[in-house]
Every structure is written in C-alpha cells, then in structure tokens.
Amino acid sequence: MEADDGGGGAGAGAGWDFLEWVGPDTSSCVFELLYHPADLARAAAVSRSWRRFVIDNEFCKRLCRRLCPEVASFTRAAVVTRRPEAAASESSRDAELRARERDHAVYCHLGGALVSGGPSEDCILACVGASSTDNFPQEAVDNTLQPQERVNGHSSYWSSGGQDEPDVPESLIYRLTSDLCLVDEIRIRPFRAYFQPGNPIYSSRAVRIRMGHSMLPPGTETFVTDENENLTAMADENYTWTYTSPEFPVLQESVLQTFKLPRPALCIGGIVKFELLGRIQKQATDDRYYICICHAQVMGRSLSPDLMVDISNPADYSILKYLPGASKLSEDDTLNNDGSDSTEWHSLVSRYRQMRHLAISNPMFGPAQRNLLLGPVQFVDEDDYEGGDIDGYMNIHIHMDGFMEM
Fold first, then answer.
1. Residue 261 domain boundaries
2. Is 211 in contact with 267 (CB distance < 8 Å)?
3. Which of 48, 160, 353, 403 would disulfide-bridge 170, Cβ 3.0–4.6 Å?
C-alpha cells in the first residue's frame, strides 16, 4: 500500500509501505485477522513486498489450519504435473523460496476449496463392513445405502447380531467418494420392524463418527458383497483415525435423523466409521438387544480431483497434493500412460481407475455421486505451471466457486 504524504517539499509524492511503517510484528497481527482466503489473495496482489510477506509467513497455511484443524496433519505440500520437472541447479536459499511459493499455491487453493459454497451431498461411495450382521446377506450393511424402507417388495435394513447386554456397541464403516471430503453432518434412520408385534424400533442410544484412512496396501481394499461379509476389514488396526465427533443422542424414531458436526471436518483418507453406542430395544422372540439401521448418510463435499493425498504409502497420508486443472482430464488420459509421465501421475491414474470401477460396479451408487467421480478431470501440462513463475500461475488459478479471480 502506498500513499502520498501530502506535505509538499521533498516528501511530496513519496510513497510508503504499510508493512515498513508499522513493522513486521504488527503487520503479522493484522494479517492474522484476515478470515477468508480471498482476503489473503488480495493482500498478496498489492505489491511484491506484500506477496513476499504473505508467502514467507505462511499465512495461507495458517488460515487453512484455523478453518479446519485437520489440515495440520499435512507435513508437506506438492504441485503435481503430468511430466516430471527437470532437476534444477539452485542454491539452498532458492530451493527454500521455491518451496514456500509452492506451499503458498497449494494452500491458497485448499483455502478456496474449504470455503467454497458448493452444495452438500451424500459422500458415501461403498460399504466396507459392519462389526456384526444378524442374517447375512439379507440384513447386510449395504442395505443402508438405500433411502427407501422397502426395495423390490422387501425390507431394506442392516441388523446387528443380538446381545444380552445393552452397552455392547456396533460399528459400520464406509468408503467416501474421494480421499479428501469436507464433512458437515451425518444422518441415520433407525429401522422399524413393522413385521414384529408392537412395531419395535431398533435404534442405538447414541452415534459417533470417526474419520481417517486405511492402513491396508493400495489396491487391497475390499467391500461388502452378497458373497463377502468382509469382517476382516473391520479390524481397528487397519485404520488411522484423524477425527472423532462428539456423541449424538439418537431418538427411538424411524425417521432420518440429522446430526450436525460442531464444525465442518476434513476427512483425510476417505474412510468414515459410524459407532453405534448402546442398545434400547429387545427382540421378543429371543429376549436379546439389537441395533437396526435403515439408511445412513455422510453429508459434505468432495475436494477432489484438484486435491488429493499420497496413497503410495498407506502409513503416510501426510502429503497434500494439488493437481492444477484436474477438472478436465479426458477418459483417454486415464487409460493411456506415457512412459514420460511422472510417478505421481501414474499413482493418480491408478486411483482414478479404482474409484471409477467401483462407481460403475456399485448398483447402490446414485447419479450425483456417479457424476462426481465419472466426470472429466484434467491435469495441467508442465508448460502451464513453471515453478519459477508463480506470479502468473497464481493470477490464473486461485479462482474458486465463491472465491475470487485475480
């Protein structure tokens, strides 16, 4: 920011920089008060000194962490292009500056994605498994993907196994539509057994969710089918949980009940676990407690395909990757890997194929989720992103829905 001092004489027309005038400490306090990524983008566009101040102090990363604390799980950020970048000879200082500029680009885009006003949709893609099932496959967990109480003339619900004690919990695990989803609420509908005397409702006392990622090797993830109850996938050591919600009390009513999270939470890894805590209803025929769910939803927004996490090592989901222009990649590009493609490109294409196959083969998959996954995606070529020209790159790519375009 520059201003004329208005005093005439030698100082007339002289400009001054707000950052130099108030000093770095006070300037940092002011910049920390900015609460929207667009504000930081505007500030970075004022002048080169302001841009350098924003980048050097990692304000975009810090703002993302305030918006969504799960972002602190990322230890590194990367920009992925289809062609590997040629190794450049540069000093350690130049490498550090380049890394800061890269982080600024990635977190600026992430910030825009976190605050964009896209519609909230059911993000469940498939059922991984249930802790128990009373009658498999008739009462399997994949029935909870159906919003209807009856399908093809038959009741559609999941039923736990019976228990003598009411405090025994159950759990249901789902795979979401992408590895990065911003979740704001969950919904469940307990099942009313209208074919039993008194039409009992087998709700749980409370529900809680955990979100995280699988520790299984890539490509080995399995799901419930009519032939496979998939109990081995339910072992807790198969997962790392990075978010746990509060407990929400569940009403003993057969309606779709909504439980809003205290704040939108980022699911890093695309796995959500419903923990059904406590039992209320006994079954008259065996005097045992059951939990039955008719329908479940995880409401939120997918942040892919522009943003993803590194799945090459299931023990490390801490690398946040930004893929500029990923919304226009053609299907042919996912099927034809060139020998010159980067390893990151190969990893993404493999992941895209896996999710696409799952979407096509899953009869429960709805049109909204199918369009989310099967729509075109595109990567930018290396000519569109040059690490040394972040200025031009940022002016083009910080546009988001509800965000700003420089």
1. 121-302
2. yes
3. 160
